[in-house]
C-alpha cells in the first residue's frame, strides 16, 4: 500500500519555501553534454554585494544542508548561489566522469551562465573537495575559499593505515549512504557528538526513501572516486586565501586531515577548530560557525588614516 504522507517530503517543501522567501529562485541549466544542473540563484542580483557559492556534502540535497541554519543570514550580505551537485537533488549527468574535478567544471559553467565573474566559495564535506578543485582550476574566478571538514588531503593509503574508523570505501559508502534505519543511526553517531535521540524508524525509512534511493550507485562511485589513486604530492596548492573549519571530534574526516591541509597550504590558510563538535558542526554549532564564516568572507574594512578621517569630518561640517 503506498504511503499517503511523507514528513521528509513536507520538510523539503518547507525548505523550498524558505529559499524562495529568502530571495532565491530555482533554475535548471542544461550544459549540453548530457548534464543538467539545478541551482538556486538570486531573484534580483545586487551588484554592490559579493557573489557567494555554497557547495553541499553527501546526503540530502543542498536545501537540507544550507537552508535551516545558514542561508537566511547570508542572503543579507551576498548574492547567494546554491547548486545541487551532480546526482543530488535535480542534478544529473549521462557522462561517466565521477571526479570532484568534473563536479567543479559543471558548477563553473553554471556560474558562467549566471554571469558571475568573481566569487567566494564555501564547501561542506564532499562539497569541500569540489570547492578546492574549483579554486585550483579556475583561479581567476574564485577569490576566497572556505573548506569545511573536507578531507582534501587524504590519500588512498590512509584507509589501510587506520586513519579512518572504517577499513574500506565500501564500508564508508554503506554508512554515508544508509539504506536501513540501523545504518542511519550509525551515520548520526559518526556525524554528531550528541546524536538525536529516539527518532522513530518510520521517519528514518521515510528519509531513506526520499533522499537516498535515487542515483545510489552513482553516489557510491563518487565516494570511490575521491580516494582512488589520491596522493598528497599530486594535490595542487590553491593560491586563494583559505579558511579551514573543522570539528575536533570529527569521525568522518578526522581532525588530522584538517591539520594536513593547513600544512599543505602553509601561510595561505587559516584554521579554526570548533570544540566539542563533530562532522555536523553546521547543525551542532551554527552560531559559532557563522561567526567564523563571516569574519573571513567579509573581512572588516580597515579604518581610514587619522589625517583622512580629520579631513572627512571637516568636510562634513562644512557641508
Shape: globular
| Class by alpha and beta content | alpha/beta
Looking at CATH, which topology of the domain at 20-158 and 232-297 would you report?
Rossmann fold
CATH class of the domain at 20-158 and 232-297: Alpha Beta
DSSP strand tally: 9
Q: Tell me about the largest β-sheet.
A: 9 strands, mixed
Give the low-confidence spans: 307-319
* Count of separate DSSP helical elements: 14
Radius of gyration from CA coordinates = 21 Å
Which percent range fits the helix content? 40-55%
N→C terminal distance: 76 Å
Percentage of residues in DSSP E strands: 15-25%
Q: Superfamily at the CATH H level of the domain at 20-158 and 232-297?
A: Alpha/Beta hydrolase fold, catalytic domain
Order of helices and strands: HEEEHHEEHEHEHHHHHEHEHHH
Mean pLDDT: 89
Can you offer a commentary on this structure?
The protein is α/β, with parallel strands linked by helices and 319 residues long. It has a domain at 20-158 and 232-297: Alpha/Beta hydrolase fold, catalytic domain (Rossmann fold). The protein is 43% helix and 16% strand. The protein is built from 14 helices and nine strands. The protein has helices at 7-21, 62-66, 71-74, 100-113, 126-137, 157-161, 169-176, 181-191, 201-212, 216-227, 255-265, 281-284, 286-297, 306-318; strands spanning 24-30, 35-42, 51-55, 79-83, 92-93, 119-124, 142-148, 242-247, 269-274. Strands 1, 2, 3, 4, 5, 6, 7, 8 and 9 form a nine-stranded mixed beta sheet that branches. Helix 5 links the parallel strand 6 and strand 7.
Present the secondary structure layout.
Elements: H1 7-21, E1 24-30, E2 35-42, E3 51-55, H2 62-66, H3 71-74, E4 79-83, E5 92-93, H4 100-113, E6 119-124, H5 126-137, E7 142-148, H6 157-161, H7 169-176, H8 181-191, H9 201-212, H10 216-227, E8 242-247, H11 255-265, E9 269-274, H12 281-284, H13 286-297, H14 306-318
Parallel strand pairs: 3-4, 3-6, 6-7, 7-8, 8-9
Antiparallel strand pairs: 1-2, 2-4, 2-5
Helix pairs in contact: 4-5, 7-10
